[in-house]
Amino acid sequence: MRVLIAGAGIAGLSAARALEINGIDCEVVEKRERPPTEGAGIFLLGNAARALGDLGLLDEVRSVAYPIATQRILSSTGSVLNHVRTANVWRECGPCLALSRQSLTGILQRSLIPGTVSYGLEAVSTASRGKMRMVRFSDGQEKEYDLVVGAAGVNSPLRSAVFGSNAAREIDISCWRLVVPNNGEIDGWTAMLGNGRTLLGIPISEAETYIYADCRSSEFGDGSVNTMKRLFSGFAGPLGPMVAALDPATAVHRAILQEVPAKRWIADRHVLIGDAAHACSPSMAQGAGMAIEDAVVLAELVSKGGPIDGILERFHEARIGRVGWVQKKSRARDKLRSGSSRIRNAVLRLFGDGLYRRTYEPLTRPLLP
Ligand SMILES: Cc1cc2nc3c(=O)[nH]c(=O)nc-3n(C[C@H](O)[C@H](O)[C@H](O)COP(=O)(O)OP(=O)(O)OC[C@H]3O[C@@H](n4cnc5c(N)ncnc54)[C@H](O)[C@@H]3O)c2cc1C
Predict the structure, then answer these.
(1) In DSSP terms, which residues pair with 3 in a beta bridge?
(2) Computed over its alpha carbons, how large is the radius of gyration of the chain?
(3) Cβ of residue 176 lying under 6 Å from some atom of ligand 1
(4) Given ligand 1 and candidates 5, 13, 28, 31, which is best to mutate, with the most ligand atoms within 8 Å of its CB?
């Protein structure tokens, strides 16, 4: 079987790994000239860790990750609204871990058969040709495949080409991401909620803490570190002083958040996975988890054999419920975060534990029946 994967982000690399360990060769093309060297941190909940275990990579990821035992939500003045022990929900599923994005993609890349990924090559278009899928590349070549896996991210050109007008849409939240020295004050996932503004700190090693900050896009202005410092100047400890101390020249990643509403993402011998199929706000920290799960499920179904159309139908059926749930709950969390502070703080104080459990427990269930 000839399989092409377009995109070498977390979804594409995971899909290649999952196919290769099931004995299925594949080619991956990545339009970037080389693997990314940028990217701040990433938080993986137990279901993402379980899927990395299915790829045979959990021990390696664990060896470079920081274990996250607690998730704590504070108000912008520093009072505790909710505090959960992650093991209460995730114990039977997998550990919760935080690490640098580069470490995660590095482990995925090194796990592949050498030469699997061709950098500096873009899949430009794809079309059905008889019983095969034809792909045209940026170097002018055309090749045929039994299956094309579109893992080209939120602005995937292949999505609109095959699936029409399901374009990504902005969700009125803009964010900064950066890594600062770990001053020892943050030893678990710690979020602070202000009026339409969120600050989050997660240790990714003994030496480094990942900081995420967001606000309404109308407040983002020039997106500079100085703007960030101004917007979060009223935040108390532990995170407020860390932002106040930032050098304006600190390297940050900026983004306007986008989502791709989950619809049907399979077509003739073509399937989308990861953000290309179902990007959403990072409120539930499930983007990477869903991408790795997509990869595991797709490879398992492909390895069982049978006509490609049937495999893709089963894949869609197996995934739509979980990714639809994540999108729905991410939107609900965004709404709660951006609503009245008084109501939100009361809801989190009174019902935070139950909300956490009800939101995440469905994701602890097996990926396939
Ligand atoms: C601010 C923010 C914070 C987040 N935090 C978390 C978190 O803590 N935990 C979590 O689980 N998730 C998080 N996510 C989500 C997570 O980062 C994404 O869901 C995940 O990285 C998606 O991976 P992907 O491979 O689908 O897409 P991408 O990472 O976008 O990869 C797509 C790749 O395809 C390449 N490409 C594009 N077009 C083509 C083409 N035509 N041909 C070849 N290559 C192509 C691109 O260059 C890129 O390398 C966050 C997202 C954001 C925006």
Answers:
(1) 147
(2) 21
(3) no
(4) 31
Q: Which residue of 5, 30, 117, 259 sits with most ligand 1 atoms within 8 Å of its CB, as the best mutation to test the pocket? A: 30
Report CA(166)–ligand 1 centroid distance (Å): 17
- Residue range 145-155: average pLDDT? 96
Other Cβ atoms less than 10 A from the Cβ of 277: the count is 29
Regarding the beta carbon of 6 and ligand 1, being less than 6 Å apart is answered: yes
Instruction: Say what the pLDDT of residue 246 is.
Output: 96
Select from 282, 368, 367, 358 the least CA-distant residue to 89: 358
Q: Please tell me the distance between residue 368's alpha carbon and the centre of ligand 1 in angstroms.
A: 24
* Block residue for tokens 């990861």: 274
- Distance CA(77)–CA(236), nearest Å, equals 5
If one looks up domain 3-64+98-168+259-335 in CATH, what number appears? Answer: 3.50.50.60
Q: Which of 193, 267, 275 is nearest to 236 (CA)?
A: 193
- pLDDT tens digits for range 70-117: 999 999 999 999 999 999 999 999 999 999 999 999 999 999 999 999
pLDDT for the residue 71: 98
C-alpha distance from residue 3 to each of 154, 160, 268, 276, 292 (Å): 21, 20, 14, 18, 18
Residue 16, both tokens: 């290649």
**3 state SS of 137:** strand
Distance (Å) from CA 183 to ligand 1 centroid? 29
CA–CA separation, 211 and 176 (whole Å)? 8
What is d(CA 286, CA 10) in angstroms, rounded to the nearest whole number?
A: 12
Q: What's at 227, amino acid-wise?
A: T
Nearest residue CA, atom 6 of ligand 1? Answer: 285
Q: Evaluate: CB of 43 within 6 angstroms of ligand 1.
A: yes
Pair 220, 173: CB distance under 8 Å: no
Best CA proximity match to 129, nearest among 114, 145, 115: 145
Q: 36: cis peptide before it, omega within 30°?
A: no
- Tokens matching residue 57: 């990579």
Give the mutation target among 10, 28, 217 for probing the ligand 1 site: most ligand atoms within 8 A of CB: 10
Say which residue the tokens 């055309």 belong to. 142
